[in-house]
Amino acid sequence: MKLKIFIMLITLSTIINAQAKFSDISSYPGSFSRMGFGARGMGMSNALSSVYTGNLVSYYNPALSAFQSKNSAQVGYSFLSLDRSLNFASFTRNFEFSSKDTTKKRTRSAGISVGVINAGVSKIDGRDNQGIATGDLSTSENQFFIGLANRFSEKFAVGIAVKLYYFHLYDNINSTTMGFDLGAIYIFNPNFSAAFVISDINSKYKWDTTDLYGQDGNNEENKFPVLKKLSVAYNFIEPKILTVVELENSNAKTNYLRFGAEYNLYENLFLRCGVDKINLNNSDVSAKPSIGFTYNYKFESWEFGFDYAYIYEPYSINNIHVVGLNFIL
Predict the structure, then answer these.
(1) Does the N-terminal peptide bond of residue 289 adopt cis geometry, omega within 30 degrees of 0?
(2) SS3 104
(3) Per residue in 260-281, pLDDT tens?
(4) Given 58, 213, 247, 320, which residue has the most CB atoms within 10 angstroms?
């Protein structure tokens, strides 16, 4: 019965797929930062905003780090087509402290999450205005983030993340800017939780090309879309399946639905699936199914895990493979 339920979820994730069209949000800057973070998140189609168990990172919701049970570190590498790269690294830890109200005799907790996303394109054929080859070019796009969270009660936490973007486009054409995320999560009971997140407040790229083009250069500002996400998660006890549904709205006039599932098949083996970018405005836009797994190995007080995710990618000759390592310290 357990296996049938999970197979049904995987089948559903592979058939929710239509003829692809160009999505408005894809034309906005910072698209690399909206692809996801790590094999767990991308394997569940980025539906992690209301998930407060397992390895957590403030990328999905700055409030989550307050629920990290032990120190968590993770790294990830993606295999993409068209000479692109996408890499991840993060560290999350929790701090517990006693309440000042001694009559309640309870502890509160806070959390911190730091990380980086690196993306780029290499082997770009460089040519001058005469069409003569000048050598290969490459770009580097990066997000550095730090998220802080406070757990005001056993059920409620709020967090904020500061994100620094650095984009090296060409020679001395660079952009360095800062944005913010705000998030909150409420746990109704151990099985049911809900979250709300606003991402990329004030995030943008600023360009100055006067050094390159002289009087023909100009100053330009490209704003990221601001995302608002409402997410709910339910954790079934038997079978051990975590399910998440998430609605995302942006000021780019997009409305996406995504869902993800994680099945604890054995003690140390987790299977995942999901569907991302189900466009509620246009049924012709292709969704992005995904599957993945994690296998954990415990050694004394350490826990080591191997992660993998496979993500369908429209408009590309190949799909995405993400591998990662996670460590619980």
Answers:
(1) no
(2) coil
(3) 999 999 889 999 999 999 998 8
(4) 58
Residues whose CB is less than 8 angstroms from the CB of residue 246 and which lie 6 or more positions away in sequence, other chains included: 46, 47, 49, 50, 229, 230, 231, 232, 257, 258, 259, 260
Instruction: Give the single-character DSSP code of 254.
Output: -
Q: Is the pLDDT of residue 296 over 50?
A: yes
Residue 61 has pLDDT above 70, yes or no: yes
Our CA dihedral for 17, 21, 22, 24, rounded to 10 degrees, sits at: -80
Rounded to two decimals, the pTM is 0.86
Closest-CA residue to 5 (of 291, 267, 265): 265
Structure tokens at 329: 């310290």
Tell me the β-bridge partners of 142.
Answer: 118, 166
Q: What are phi and psi of 60, to 5 degrees?
A: -85, -35
- Locate all alpha helices (DSSP H) within the chain, ordered by sequence: 2-15, 38-43, 210-213
What does the block give as tokens for 130? Answer: 């005469």
Query: Residue 9 phi/psi, 5° resolution?
Result: -65, -40
Q: In Å, how far from its chain's centre is CA 208?
A: 29
Residue 217 corresponds to which tokens in the numbers above?
């250069």
Q: Is the pLDDT at 17 greater than 50, yes or no?
A: no
What's CA 239's distance to the chain center, in Å?
A: 26
DSSP E strands in the chain: the ranges are: 72-79, 84-98, 107-127, 133-151, 156-170, 173-189, 192-201, 204-208, 219-223, 227-235, 241-250, 255-266, 269-279, 288-299, 302-311, 320-328
Cα 229-232-233 angle, rounded to 5 deg: 135
Residue 4 above 60 pLDDT?
Answer: no
Q: Is the dihedral of CA 255, 196, 325, 291 positive or negative?
A: negative
